[in-house]
Amino acid sequence: RKEVEQDPGPFNVPEGATVAFNCTYSNSASQSFFWYRQDCRKEPKLLMSVYSSGNEDGRFTAQLNRASQYISLLIRDSKLSDSATYLCVVNLPNFGNEKLTFGTGTRLTIIP
Amino acid sequence: EAQVTQNPRYLITVTGKKLTVTCSQNMNHEYMSWYRQDPGLGLRQIYYSMNVEVTDKGDVPEGYKVSRKEKRNFPLILESPSPNQTSLYFCASSRRATLTDTQYFGPGTRLTVL
User: Is the separation of the CB atoms in A102 and A6 below 8 Å?
Assistant: First the structure.
């Protein structure tokens, strides 16, 4: 089983719709969780951290479910500019060293 | 402007010809790392550095070398490139050597080894 798994998509969603995707992780000792956004042929950039109690940043909501070992990202009122690949990132403990593991990404296209 | 820079951005080379990809950050960050990104495999860490003169292997270090002689620079060296090193490479840095800090990525270097 992969350490971090995401549905690769693509998700094609009409503008204004709400879209959500999940990411599962295999190591229950994982401590920190993030969503990064990567535009086509560009570098990843931090979208938001994911906190235990869930957190919102404008139209974006991130949630963590430790019992089922997944994190989710919800985008409300989607814009054309939301088209990108969304990377789930998990900070795994690794024999005393921390390790960041990236999912392969979920590709989202917002359709006018 | 706070940034991570990489050079070159694009490189086509031949098998066995040594090359260096430079990475520099102007944010006085302690932690720097190199990743490669391949379709279906995501970002995989090659090497990382917790601070000057401190480097360690990531998940896929074979065929690569790094050095950290100055805090701002973290070059990636391919002594004898092979076609399986064709990939998109990203350098990243963060303020502290703890992975809860935001990772700032360079613009990427697209390498093709023929």
Answer: no
Task: Kindly report, residue by residue over B4-31, the tens digit of the pLDDT.
Answer: 999 999 999 999 999 999 999 999 999 9
Q: CA A21 from chain center: how many Å?
A: 7
Contact B27, B92 (CB under 8 A): no
A44 and B105 in contact by Cβ < 8 A?
yes
Cβ of A98 within 8 Å of Cβ of B108? The answer is no
Residue-wise DSSP of B65-76: EE--SSSSB--E
pLDDT per position as a tens digit, B77-89: 999 999 999 999 9
**Three-state SS at A13:** strand
Give the integer Cα–Cα distance in Å for B106 and B87.
15
CB of B43 closer than 8 Å to CB of B32: no
Q: Which two tokens stand for residue A8?
A: 């690769």
pLDDT score at A95:
66
Q: How far apart are the first and last CA of chain B?
A: 36
Query: pLDDT band at A96, cuts 50/70/90?
Result: low
Could you tell me the maximum CA-CA distance found in chain B, to the nearest angstrom? 38
Checking DSSP bridges between strand B42-51 and strand B54-57, what pairing results, if any?
A: antiparallel
B45–A99 C-beta distance less than 8 A: yes
Distance CA B67, CA B48 (A): 10
